[in-house]
Structure formats: C-alpha cells, structure tokens
Amino acid sequence: MPTFNNRVLVLITGTLFATSACGGNTTVPTGAAGSNSGSQVSYTSQVSAPGAGSIVPSDTTSILKKLTKDVEIGSTIDGKNGDMGPRAISLVRSTFGLKKGQLLVCNFEDSAGTAGKGTTIEVLNPKPHSKPVTFTQSTKVEGCDGDAVTATNQVYGAGMLSGLVSQFDQAGKLKKSYRSHIQVPFAEADAFCGEPYAPEDIYVADSKTGSIVKIAFVPVSGGVKITEVITGFGINKGSGWSALGPSGIQYNSQRTGSLCNDTLYIVDGVDNTVVAVSNASNLLEKDEIVVQPGGKKFKCAHPKDTCATLVYSGSPLSAPVASALLPNGNLIVANTKGGNKLVELTPTGQVLDTKTIDTSTTAHVFGLLATGTSDSDTALFYTDTKTNTLQELEQ
C-alpha cells in the first residue's frame, strides 16, 4: 500500500455526475430564479443548478421504497469504557490495518449517558451480530460527532467538546490535531477528485460559527492550509444532541480530463435546507460564499469558479442533521424532529420518498452511510441512539 502522508482521499463511491460553476448563463429548472449583480450572485430557487447550460439528469428511482428490511448489525457500546450514543458512520475501503468493508462509528456519550463526553471510535463488521472493537479512545475526539477514513486508512475524528479534528493511524494511534478556525466541529467529510498528487481536502462544519472550514492538504510539500471558506449557516446555540447547524456534508465528484467537476452538499438543520456548492475544489478564500439569513440565498465572491444553490427547503425536512450520498447520486437526509423520518431527494430537489424509522418524539438517527454500486444493491446504514446499535436497511 503506497504512503500518502497526511493527504486525504475520497470516501464516496457510486455513480457521480458532472457539475460546473454557478453564475453566468447557468440554466435552472422551471420555477427557479437567479439574479446576477456584479460579482455577487444570489439564488432563490428550491432546485439546484449543478450544470452550466444544461440540467443534470436525475435518477428518479426511489431507493427508500426498496429498503424494506431493517437489520441490526450490532451494539456500538464500547467494551472498555462503556461509551455509547452512536453518531457518525464511515466505511473502510481497503485492507490496510483495518479491513475493507468494516465500519467506523463515533460514540457521542460516555457510559453515564452524558452527551458530548464520548471519546471512542468503534469498529464493526458489516454483518449481523457484530461486536464493537475499540479503534481509539482519546480526549482529542471528546464529543465524537464525525469520523472519516482515507484510502490508506488514516482516520479523522471530530470532537464537539474537544474542538478538534484529529488524525489517527491505522492502529488508532494519534498523529496530529487541527484547531485553527474550528470552534465546535459538528460534521466532516473529505474530498479527492481522483488524480494522484491532486489537492485533497477535509471539510469541517462548525455548529458555533455556522461555517464550513476547509483543511487543504498541499500535494508534494505536505503543507496544510486551513480556511473558513463558507459562512452564514444557521445555528441554534444548542448543546449535546439538541445542537443544530451545518452538517451532513457529502462530496460528489467526477473528473473530465484535467478538470474536476465536484459538488459539496451541506444540510442546514436550522433552516431545514439542503445546499449544493458547485466546484467545491475551487474554494480557496475566506468567506468565499456567504449564506444569507434564512439559508436560501447566497453571495459568492467568484461565481464563475464556485457558488452555492438551494437544492431543497421546508417540509418534509425537520431539523435534519445526517445525510448519505447514494450510488446513483441522490441523497437521503435524516430528520431529528417529527418522528425520525428519512427523506430521499434528487440533486434537483425532487422528493422521491420518505420513511419513518421511529415515531418517537426523541431523535434517534444521527448517522447515515450508503453502500453499493447500483440501485439494485444499495443498502443504508444508520445509527440508533435509542438502542445504541448500528442498523442496516436492506432490499
């Protein structure tokens, strides 16, 4: 297995669609409206405009309707210190220390059930009756609410209480922590467009500042640049499980020749929106995109290079936190109010289906992960904080 130092590789699989910069002569679906004023662009549509001059076709097959079997994979309670409250999920994609197909799950609570005090990341095999194995236990990820694993199985964990994003090697040993421009990390995703030695990044959502921070790992030199590239997302100043802000980050990319067409999806739990950022790899400057109050309009410093659009807003979204990118390019979003409902969306904002996991008024679903290569073999993993288990929705 080659060594890539601290550079981060993409975690996303599946069929990907091309996108290009917002602004200019961007074509939007019927009913969408965009206005261009100098170097600032504001979008008011409820449908994203991911392509310049054309509309990206969507797969309107509902995957949620196919996922009729709910299987318990296993408990997520740490066998050593009793941490519980499963949150984020990530997938191991190669065998190197960790094994291909294994799942990593963050524990947000300690053994007493105190939210924000969990300090462990668990490893589970993707089959029923799996037993959790401690990958790491560290105060550097206290309040663990985000985890990601690279192609070389470097693991990045985010801690709401620690205020850090930390890197661990394949054996769970702490390598480095990042704090600059990060106050309360709420979610994370990594991004790589597919070329060796191409720029690779981690995007971190902050529930205190309502911003998206880009940790850019510079090719060859191994340097790191940390920039608050998006700001203005809604925050509710809540604590523990009740905190809301930008989260559910998903990265979708396709390389065309030397060009990287990539989209960053962000869930806004305060304004009940899903936002798409075109050409995310072009985000370089502080506050390059500013979300306007209400979360539906955006000011973009360089709209020909990168901009944000509104994918969807309003019902059936209700305080969403987690999301998953399906192999066909669609999204599933998990509500934390209104009965733990899952909402399936196309990138152009069409609601395909909803599914209620639990009618309880207490939120239970805070982590989602989709696997598969086609509509026919897609499965969806989710964390259940009510039972402290990892579950799988199967066809």
Task: Describe it.
The chain is mainly β and 395 residues long. The chain has one domain: Neuraminidase, CATH 2.120.10. Helices cover 0% and strands 43% of the residues. It has no helices and 28 strands. It has strands spanning 34-37, 40-43, 69-75, 84-91, 103-109, 120-124, 133-137, 144-149, 155-159, 164-168, 174-178, 185-192, 200-206, 211-217, 224-231, 246-256, 259-268, 273-278, 289-291, 298-300, 308-313, 320-325, 331-335, 341-345, 351-356, 368-371, 379-384, 389-394. The protein has a six-stranded mixed sheet with strand order 12-13-14-15-19-20, with no helix packed on it. β13 (200-206) and β14 (211-217) form a beta hairpin. The radius of gyration is 19 Å and the shape is globular. The two termini are 34 Å apart. The model is unreliable at 1-56 (pLDDT under 50).
Quaternary assembly: single chain
CATH-defined superfamily: TolB, C-terminal domain
| Overall radius of gyration | 19 Å
CATH architecture: 6 Propeller
User: What spatial form do the alpha-carbon principal axes imply?
Assistant: globular
The secondary-structure class comes to: mainly beta
Total discrete domains = 1
Which sheet architecture does the biggest sheet show? 6 strands, mixed
> What order do the strands of the largest sheet run in, or round the barrel if closed?
12-13-14-15-19-20
Which series of helices and strands comes N to C?
Answer: EEEEEEEEEEEEEEEEEEEEEEEEEEEE
CATH topology: Neuraminidase
What percent of residues adopt helix (DSSP H or I)?
A: under 10%
Residue windows where pLDDT falls under 50 for at least 5 positions: 1-56
Cα(first) to Cα(last) distance is 34 Å
Kindly state the number of beta strands: 28
The CATH class designation is Mainly Beta
Tally of contiguous helical segments: 0
**What share of residues are in beta strands?**
35-45%
| Arithmetic mean pLDDT | 85
